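Lab notebook, bench 4. Still working through the backlog of constructs that have no structural model yet. Next entry is a single chain of 154 residues. Request: give me the structure tokens for it.
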Amino acid sequence: MADDTVRARYSQGAKFGLMLLFLLALSVAQPFIFWQFELPLWQRLLLPVVTVTLSWWWALFRMVYRMTLTGSELRLRAALWSWRIPLAEVDRVGGAGGQNLVTVRRRDGKSWSALSGSGIVEFAERVAEAAPGARGADALVRTEDRMTRFFEKS
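Model written out:
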């Protein structure tokens, strides 16, 4: 039987809401922006449709704003979709230093983007401890340390 006890939770719901508001404003502005370029009419009409559609698809179906670690799996939640990854299949939770996104990667290569913020380093370390063979949050730790040192100088 699977262990559904929640061991750690990470959420960036407020930041995700702000991102959706920004995306809404950008979706309204894009047709006017593209209309200013010297492009054929069909491109002026098609570019906003394609970029707005892809942006919303990514934000609603692929952008993870909440992760929950249980005793047997890592649960990811996007606005309109969710995933359950068994801990044995988790390869990595981390990202390149200086990015606002964290990558959650499964052993078969499938990956998801999650918003980074306060508490992500601790959560990634908990996942690395719970998942056999998963890589931790080295780049995230280095980025967080650099940010702390920057504010100490001020």
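Notes after review: The helical segments are 13-35, 41-62, 120-130, 138-153. The longest strand covers residues 6-11. Flag for follow-up if needed.
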